[in-house]
Design a protein that fits this description.
Layout (H helix, E strand, L loop, with lengths): L1 H44 L4 H36 L27 H11 L1 H24 L2 E9 L5 E8 L4 E7 L13 E9 L7 H67 L5 H35 L4 H10 L6
Antiparallel strand pairs: 1-2, 1-4, 2-3
Length: about 350
């Protein structure tokens, strides 16, 4: 189930990224069309060449193709999301809100590495399974050693006076207990009542010549323990490395997001400046639109950085052995918008 949650989150984030990409592509297409119109006017005025017009037409065509590709990408992202969720796609697609910054308590950043290792040791199924295998191997060693030792058994029986029932009991040092109740029926003339009787016996069995089979069984079981211990150590080392890598990835995602947010702030400031210049007659409409496209591009990178941060957080949580309920709480904590 944790894998399904990760796949659904990844598909959901891909839809948000595709939406931001389409928004940027539409602005680029609008700007390319405006640039083409300006060049055509300049050609008519004789201040631009036919080569300039051809270059502008090529730019407009590329922008249109990029917008079409972005629309196709968004359609594929929606299809993938509903396919992973296993539900039919509705005719009216839901509106998704833009991604927002993840809550600090859902980032898993700054957590003690030892705490994450402890969580992984308790929650990673492959490590839990390896430890169970190790315990089973150790029990097999004890069993092989028991089989090699002499066998001590105690046997006892008791028959009450005149009774037709007798009770037999046997117990050995290998935790085997057997009780038998026997009743004797006879169709001949009954014999005189039998006296009370009981019997106790102690037996020791030691197989002196087994061709080394017992010793070989012990060695084989001990080798299995060694291999199981090695498997556990290797898994623990691999998980420790995996956790370190995912923590590094999470830190890098945080730095990328910080840079993207600075770019959004700078692009928004640049747009406000150009709009003011246009209001004063010192900038053209195309320059304003180019600033708007630059802001859309910066926001796209911000969305991509937020999505990568969410993915990095989820990868770290899965590596740390979070179960499905814990993972769902982390994913839904960011609340980027409902479906």
């Amino acid at each position: 189930r944790a894998q399904l949650l990760r796949d659904v989150e990844n598909a959901y984030l891909s839809v948000l990224e595709a939406q931001a990409t389409l928004e940027w592509a539409r602005l680029l297409e609008r700007n390319a069309q405006e640039a083409l119109r300006v060049v055509q006017d300049r050609v008519e005025l004789g201040v631009a060449t036919e080569l300039d017009r051809l270059a502008a037409e090529a730019g407009a065509l590329q922008a249109r193709q990029a917008r079409q590709a972005a629309e196709d990408g968004l359609e594929l992202a929606w299809e993938a999301l509903y396919q992973i969720m296993g539900v039919p796609r509705p005719e009216q697609l839901p509106a998704l809100e833009p991604l927002s910054q993840l809550p600090a308590d859902a980032l898993l950043a700054g957590l003690d590495p030892e705490a994450l290792k402890a969580q992984a040791r308790a929650g990673r199924p492959e490590l839990v399974q390896a430890r169970l295998g190790l315990e089973q191997s150790r029990l097999q060693v004890e069993q092989a050693r028991i089989q090699k030792r002499p066998r001590l058994s105690l046997e006892a029986s008791y028959t009450p006076e005149g009774a037709k029932n007798s009770l037999s009991l046997s117990l050995d040092d290998r935790a085997l207990l057997q009780a038998t109740l026997t009743r004797v029926e006879s169709e001949v003339e009954p014999l005189p009542p039998s006296p009370e009787s009981w019997k106790v016996g102690l037996q020791v069995t030691w197989n002196l010549l087994d061709g080394g089979a017992s010793a070989a069984a012990v060695r084989e079981a001990e080798e299995a323990v060694t291999q199981a211990e090695l498997t556990v150590r290797q898994l623990e080392a691999a998980i420790t490395l995996e956790l370190a890598q995912h923590q590094t990835g999470l830190t890098q995602a945080l730095l990328t997001l910080a840079a993207a947010e600075r770019s959004v702030t700078e692009a928004a400031g640049r747009l406000a400046q150009v709009e003011q210049q246009a209001h004063e007659g010192a900038a053209t409409k195309l320059q304003v639109w180019e600033a708007e496209a630059a802001l859309a591009q910066a926001r796209l990178k911000q969305v991509q950085a937020l999505a990568e941060l969410a993915r990095a957080r989820t990868r770290l949580a899965i590596a740390a052995g979070y179960d499905a309920e814990q993972l769902q709480a982390l994913i839904t904590a960011r609340a980027p918008g409902g479906m």
